[in-house]
Amino acid sequence: MQRASDDMPMPHPETASLLAYCRPGFEGECAQELAARDAGVGGSGFARATRGSGFVEFVTDHTEALAGAWQDLVFARQLLRVLGSARDLPARDRLGVLLPIIEAEHANGMPQRWCDAWVESPDSDATRELAPLCRGLNAALIAALKKKQLIDRGSRWRLHLCLTATDAAFAAAANIDETAPWPGGIPRLKFPRAAPSRSTLKLEEALLVLLDDDERERWLKSGMRAVDLGASPGGWTWQLVARSLHVIAVDNGPMDATLLASGLVDHLRADGFRYRPQKPVDWLVCDMVEQPRRVAELIAQWLAQGWCRYAIFNLKLPMKKRHDEVQLCLTILRDALADAGRRVELRAKQLYHDREEITVFARVA
Predict the structure, then answer these.
(1) What pLDDT, on the 0 to 100 scale, is given for residue 356?
(2) For residues 224 and 92, what is the distance between their CA atoms, to the nearest angstrom?
(3) Is residue 77 located within the same domain as residue 205?
(4) 125 annotated among ligand-binding-site residues
(5) I need a surface site. Which of 33, 133, 150, 220 has the fewest CB within 10 A?
(6) Which parts of the sequence belong to the Ribosomal RNA methyltransferase FtsJ domain (predicted)?
(7) Residue 174 phi/psi, 5° resolution?
(8) Is 189 exposed, middle or buried (0-12, 13-18, 19+ CB in 10 A)?
(9) In a shared domain, residues 98 and 210
(10) Is 214 flagged in the annotation as binding?
(11) 197-200: long-range contacts (C-beta < 8 A, 24 or more apart)?
């Protein structure tokens, strides 16, 4: 790549692409998902990704068709339209290179003004040290945009600068109606001291990411009844009790004493795979360490038999062919419900608090 001069770095050649954030180590699965979506609309795009980087750039002529797919993607925490990228950024004037890339896009159909601007970096070991630089650059970027009258709080578009190194960055755009509302696609949660285990954050994040405000209000009402399979010591049960649900906690292991004293928890020492409810409940939650297909079959049975209306559960993924395993498990659920004459709505994400697993929300539609 040639420079115009020895002092001024050139932006990366223009290509139509999307930028997806993901869990480090899952770039391949994220790329597979995007490629499958692209093929579904007649595309033949390709991914640029480095294992462990925490992001994937996906080059395609179908960016508009794919850009709104964030909520339907399992492995992407965020999905952005790339405006351009630059390397060899000068340490003392990064915005001097990046702002022209942003402004040049105004003539190409992108918004003239932004509701906000975020400077962030992927969630990887190599880029976490960029956090102080991101904060400082964010303040400077907002000031520069205000000076140019490019900030409009009523705009549907948010500007993103993603630093992948101290001297490299993507400029990208997010339609706020179609993208994650958290920097990096990660909701920042504080561990509640009263909760008996950190696994409670998995369910809290799942309820925040997989359900919207209205759904949480309508589907998680005080007095509803739930079953927690594999409940010990009670991290997921704690989230339900905090919302005043009555919970049957099924596990051969011990439960937190404070939870049991709440009057909202019945602890049943039993195998979660063998337990059957005496009468239907509203919610089933499940975070058991077991083969993902077996868990999918169990949840499918609960939904197909009408033993619950809503379910949130984790699928622990194998070391290889993780994307394929996810698709197989979701197919198991859909097919089982179809055989029972029911249709299931599924939403799945690899959450920030997940590791080698994904979290799924299911309801009989």
Answers:
(1) 96
(2) 57
(3) no
(4) no
(5) 133
(6) 197-290
(7) -130, 125
(8) middle
(9) no
(10) no
(11) 197/233, 197/234, 197/235, 198/235, 198/353, 199/235, 199/236, 199/287, 200/235, 200/236, 200/238, 200/239
Tokens coding 58: 């996906």
**Residue where the block lists tokens 């340490």:** 91
Single-letter amino acid code for the residue at 113: R
DSSP classification of residue 14: P
CATH number of 325's domain: 3.40.50.150
For residue 357, is it within any domain? yes
Residues with active-site annotation: 316
115 and 247 fall within a common domain: no
- Domains in the chain, number: 2
CA distance 60 to 335: 32
Q: Is the model's pLDDT at 330 over the cut of 80? A: yes
Say if residues 136 and 147 touch (Cβ distance below 8 Å).
no
Q: Give the tokens for residue 225.
A: 């009844």
Q: Is the pLDDT of residue 3 over 50?
A: no
Amino acid at 301: Q
Query: 232 a known binding residue?
Result: yes
Ramachandran region, residue 115 (left: φ > 0; alpha: ψ -120 to 50; beta: rest)? alpha
- Is the model's pLDDT at 256 over the cut of 90? yes
Considering the domain boundaries, does residue 51 fall inside one?
yes
271 among annotated binding-site residues:
yes
Query: Rounded to an integer, what distance in angstroms lies between the CA atom of residue 58 and that of residue 47?
Result: 4
The pLDDT of residue 110 is 62
Separation between Cα atoms, residue 330 and residue 343, nearest integer Å: 13
User: Taking the alpha carbons of 94, 70, 45, 327 in that order, is the dihedral positive or negative?
Assistant: positive
CB burial readout 139-153, b (16+ within 10 A) else e: eebbebbeeeebbee
pLDDT score of 9 more than 50: no
235 is in an annotated binding site: yes
* Same domain assignment for residues 270 and 311: yes
Establish whether 233 is an annotated binding residue: yes
Domain that holds residue 101: 17-185
